[in-house]
Amino acid sequence: MTSFTAPRALGRTGTEISSITVGAAGWQRRADGSGPTPEETSALAREILAHPWITALDTSNNYGGGQSERRVGVALDDAGGIPPGFVLSTKADRHGRTGDFSGERMRRSLEESLARLGIDRFPLLFLHDPENTTWSAATAHDGPVAALVQARDEGLIAHLGVSGGNCTMLEEFVRLGEFEAVISHNRYTLVDRSAESLLEAAGEVGVGVFNAAPYGGGLLTAYPFWTARYAYGDAEPDVLRAATEFGEIAARHGVDLGAVSLQFSLRDPRITSTIVGMRTREDLRRTEALVAAPVPEALWEEIASVRLDPGTWQDALIPWVRE
């Protein structure tokens, strides 16, 4: 068992989790017919729930309008429930049509997720995307944070986390003292280090860190690139320049850029688990191979020498408006 496949402590929760968390955001069929079939995600779920070292799966109330949670729920039912030691996480979401982000909406979100997943208690639940409300509304006495804290105190949630975009925002939520885990996405990769301060803050207060989208939504998956998009839009020219340098370094060392991108996250001791989106068993096989790929130390020394422009990072491009 390598250091990448050994279980890790999830902050102060007393729970251990694998370095890889399977992301189930793509477990849905879209209107255009794209996306994995239920049979494909069912086959993947069977492997994940019995996997020798991957012990975590993440979904959300609003992924695919509930499709993702329903598919996970079917898999759990087939498996006889959540396996011992497995960490299932989902997220409480605003209303998909009205945008309602109230405390009352959080309770409805919990009810919907419990029904879809077929469970009676959340092992780990995240407040999702609070950038879609204001700080004062989020932290009001009857707001979404208070509603989820109350649900936790009632025993409905074992561990409470927060998940979102801008890392300045996430750091403020982490420092409230109510959250035991945090998910950041597209903000700690080879080309974007927006989450640097968040990682330090989480470590200071004992909050477990999930780093999602280590490939930046596709750009850092392989070299030559198959897409020029990073996160949810076209990559900035300087991001493409840096990504190209990383790709060339990987190629010189005979290493898959995907392995470098993934292991960049896995090797950081401040990151508990890296969320990798998977839709089929083939995605799982590729992830296993990238985790196991040998990467020479000399490559990491070259990686560290590449110049990055903080002005092109996601937090600079999408600043948080606190109120």
Summarize the structure.
This protein has 12 helices and 12 strands.
Account of the protein in words:
- The protein has 323 residues and is α/β, with parallel strands linked by helices.
- Helix content is 38%, strand content 16%.
- The strands form three sheets. The protein has an eight-stranded parallel β-barrel, surrounded by five helices. A two-stranded antiparallel ribbon has the order 1-2. Strands 10-11 form a two-stranded antiparallel ribbon.
- Strand 3, helix 1 (38-49) and strand 4 form a beta-alpha-beta unit.
- Helix 1 (38-49) packs across helix 2, helix 6 (167-174) runs parallel beside helix 7 (196-205) and helix 9 (257-266) packs across helix 10 (281-292).
- The longest helix has 16 residues, at 237-252.
- The chain is globular, with a radius of gyration of 19 Å.
- The model has no long low-confidence stretch (mean pLDDT 97).
Features:
323 residues; alpha/beta; 8-stranded parallel β-barrel; two-stranded antiparallel ribbon; 12 helices; globular
SS strand fraction: 15-25%
The number of helical elements comes to 12
Give the class from helix and strand content and strand pairing. alpha/beta
What's the story with the biggest beta sheet?
8 strands, parallel, barrel
Write the layout of secondary structure elements.
Blueprint: E1 8-9, E2 16-17, E3 20-23, H1 38-49, E4 56-58, H2 67-79, E5 87-92, H3 103-117, E6 122-128, H4 135-138, H5 144-153, E7 157-164, H6 167-174, E8 181-185, H7 196-205, E9 208-212, E10 229-230, E11 233-234, H8 237-252, H9 257-266, E12 273-277, H10 281-292, H11 297-304, H12 314-317
Helix pairs in contact: 1-2, 3-5, 6-7, 9-10
